[in-house]
Amino acid sequence: MRLSYAVSLLPLAAFVGALEVTSPKKGEDVDLSSSFTVTWDTVSTDPSTFDLYLVNNAVYPTVEKKVASDVDTSKGSYTVSGLSGVTDGSGYQINLLSTSSTNSGILAQSEQFTVEGGSSSTTTASASMTTSASSSSSSSTGTSTGTDTSSTSSSSSTGSSSITTASTSTSSTSSSSTSKLTTTTSGA
Questions:
Q1: How confident is the model at residue 119 (pLDDT cuts 50, 70, 90)?
Q2: For 79-90, what is each residue's pLDDT tens digit?
Q3: I need a labelling partner for 9 at 20 to 30 A (CA). Which of 73, 140, 144, 168 fits?
Q4: Which DSSP letter does residue 111 get?
């Protein structure tokens, strides 16, 4: 019984120390809009080629995007050039899948990392704000000839009134604002 158990574990021993994805690392931010490099360690018993996939099983629907086919295992790295159509977020992994019909399945899997810059659509945010303020006050202009004018307000006048309006406007692709300040001066 012990001999059969030891013999059944023998095929597993051949895979100890086999392919191991070393980059991207756990929690790393990967920008898919530019190139990034996937690296791995290998041993002589590993298959000569594999297919490279970007996957995310933490979202629905799951992501399984084939990045490269028949990658040479002995190279130890593969540079991925700008992927698109992938939603930004966490939970992504790199899978190295066997190309052999006799040894199918995942040969190695990276730890989870975050993807950014992968969305194929652009989101534009805009905001608009209008601020309005008005104030009325009196000011003293002109002259008085023999007439005594007094008022309980803060000033007195025999003269003129004016209206001043100031308006400023600024805008950019992400926000805009408009401010209007109206000041009215009138004589009493």
A1: low
A2: 999 788 899 999
A3: 73
A4: P
CB atoms within 10 A of CB 18: 16
For residues 60-78, average pLDDT = 95
In-domain check, residue 105: yes
Helix (H, G, I), strand (E, B) or coil at 74: helix
> Is there a contact between 43 and 16 (Cβ–Cβ < 8 Å)?
no
Domain count, the chain: 2
186 token code pair: 């009138």
CA distances in angstroms from 182 to 81, 131, 132, 157, 187, listed in the order given = 56, 11, 8, 21, 17
- Residue 83 maps to a domain: yes
| Mean pLDDT, the chain, integer | 69
Q: What is the pLDDT of residue 179?
A: 37
Query: Are residues 40 and 103 part of one domain?
Result: yes
pLDDT value for 84: 85
**Claim to verify: residue 132 and residue 52 sit in the same structural domain:** no
Does residue 145 fall inside a structural domain?
no
Distances (CA, A) of 12 to 5, 8, 17, 34, 130: 12, 8, 10, 38, 70
The parent domain of residue 162 ranges over: 124-140+154-188
Q: Are residues 110 and 136 both part of a single domain?
A: no
The residues facing 134 across adjacent strands are 182
pLDDT tens per residue across span 96-115: 999 988 888 999 999 999 99
